[in-house]
Amino acid sequence: MSQRSYNKLWADVQLELSRLLEEELPDEPLRPEKDRVVFFQRVAMFYVRYLQIFRKLEEIYDQVIHPQKRRLIRTILDGVIGRLLELKNEMVEKEFSEYHYMDDIVHDLKLSPADLEIPIPRYFITECSKEFQERKTMLTDILKLVEVTESLEPLMVKDMSPEKAIKIIQIAERARQGRLRAKLNEESRNMNRMYKTKDPGAADIESAAICIQKVWRGYVQRKRTKIAREEEMIFLGMAMDPKYKVPRPAEIAAKATEACNRIKQQEHEEDYQKSIVAISKQLLDVEGHDMSNTMKDQIRQWFIECRDATGSFPDYPDAEDGGSALIFAEKNPQQLKEEIAAKEEEDSNNRPKGKEEKKKNGKKDKGKTDIEEEEEGLKMLPSAFLPDLEVGNKTFEDFWQNRNESKNFVQRHEVELIKEEKRKVIEAEILLQVDVQMRQELAEWKLAVDKDKGGKTKGNAKKKKGSKSGKKKKKEKDLTADRTLESLCQELVEQGLLKKPNNVALQDYLGDYSYLGTTLRQYDIEPMPSLSDVRQVLTLYGILPLGSQVVHEKAPLIKAILLTGPTGVGKKMLVHAICQETGANLFDLSTLNTAGKYPGKSGLAMMLHMVFKVARLLQPSVIWIGDAEKMFYKKVPKEEKELEPKRLKKDLSKSLKLIKGEDRVLIVGTTRDPLSADIKSLCKMYSKILLIPRPDYGSRYILWKQLITKQGGEVTKALDLSSLAKISDGYTPGHMVQVVQSVVTKRRVLQQAKRPLTASEFVPPLAKMDPVFQEEEEALKNWYAKTPLGKKRIKAATGKEEEEAPDKNKDAKKKKGKK
Length: 819
What we know:
The protein is mainly α. 65% of the residues lie in helices and 3% in strands. Helix 24 links the parallel strand 4 (621-626) and strand 5. Helix 3 (67-95) packs antiparallel against helix 14. It starts with a helix and ends with a helix. Residues 151-155, 352-375, 453-473 and 801-819 have low confidence and may be disordered.
């Protein structure tokens, strides 16, 4: 598409966004909704509409080449992503489930299940700061060095037992004898053929010709019939025309244009940065001196007006309060003086109160809020992203919506817009310099005119500084302050705690949409999520917050996620996919990996300090804890006591509390046996628990097809994928990968032309594996029902939640009465 088309698409998206903002922020606030189902439907509708905006904005941002437009689109895109995460959080809290089924909304909006797929923005990896790229290259160099040293170690000669050596010699000798025997047999067969050949007679030649004709005519007719059948299927729309399977010239040209646009983006961005520097210098040289003089004149005028109105010179506003920016706000000297005095009173009143008073007030406030919520009903939680979206939408309407760009065909930057932005920045810089000079000038005026008042103001200033110093918090001790980042990374890599993630995309985690989710919930049956649902939820919880700093700081903070499910469902693959999609580093704190490393309490503290320090400096980072249940064992097995699986439990939970909104660090735990762990401590550590089931029929069908194709196999009519998907019920994607690798070998791929693949070939190796039985899946479902979210879901389904609400009020009143 052309840049004009993308501009038009952007205008359409902004129109839809403005409509959404009007619905979310009406002039009169919406009444609280008492019906939970109706409220959820409203939130889900907002979610789907924001998702469609997100999909289009991501495409626009990837292709628009105008640098200033791209900045505005980026801010709006980050706001939409953040709002999407807020709505997801709202849906989870109201429906008490991590997975939602919105078939009715998809039908109403005339969308397809593919439109609910959450895209991963490409700028997560492409647009990184120079510092980040330098750190990444440094880390890759260290990983390569360690890989080279590890690869050299196996070349060393190792001791071998005599039994093993004899076995290897026997294998080699038997293979040699087999090859020799096969060669002798082939030679004897060739000799026999030579002796059997005789001179053919006339009858033999005729019968041979008839035989050849039969075979040829049968072959030609079968080929014609096959072609006619294929043409009929294409005509009926039951099969795809082969010419559409190959990329069309228009598609190839479109991809080439997209690649060209990305190159132009870089060129225009470089020009934009150069012009910013040149224009800033020009404005500072031409207008800087005049700005400084006018500011000084206005501040002096304010001094005189205050003196005339109040009889004394005012106190100069502190830099923390905005400095002389308060003066330039349109206020009278008396109003400004009253405002400064009011702020001083607030600072004095905001001193820490006694613990008992705080507790009493807190209990009263909590009681009031609970009663208010029950009386009001269900309301949307306050949003941190809606104001940003409003500002972005207003900027678009004011500047870009009706702008005539007929002369800017190349889509270069707007010089006047740069001047407007940089003028404000330069004014702010000059204002700081002017403040320093005018504070000194005011002090000289006061000394000259009212010396007594000048002394008092100095005393007050000292008091303020003393009160503020008491509020400072203690900083965390840096145990490795004398070490460089490179040395820390090298040590972590050598110890095996910092690893290179596998090259796996999230789209490789295959799965089909859950088509029966809404229907099952209508009959009060809780459906098991499909692999597609798992992929979408992990994108929302893991990838989108880690990819954007703005989103991570303001969105609902998720510090730790637990992936639980049977062996082979792809838990480890999902961890590597998160790292690959966001460019995150992978730290491995699994029990088996940390066993024997950094012994003792001081060693453990040092290990966690190093991991979290490097994770923050090289953010985004993912800290993976494999076999997470081992850390929370109810009873440690005898064979695992030497590994000390529970030694990370206390210190890791402390480190988890130190993760803040600005730290793009995510802890991901994986477990296949959560039943052996203490559920309370496990749920306390992991705020989000995702249950990954075995794949359903639709997912199995897609998995078989994609895995066979990826291995080099051809899916023909001889291969009945539907039957194969049906009989493989209970088997995980890991089982399917092993079966495909064992059947579709290099030799078998070469034989496909004569002997196509059939479903029966995959059955014997599949039968040798143990599937995930129904009992194991039911045990996991029962365990999940005991988690906090699972308990809430059961209460909501049985209707106990509504009954418990009045009981809580009664208990609270009784307690107050006793007091």
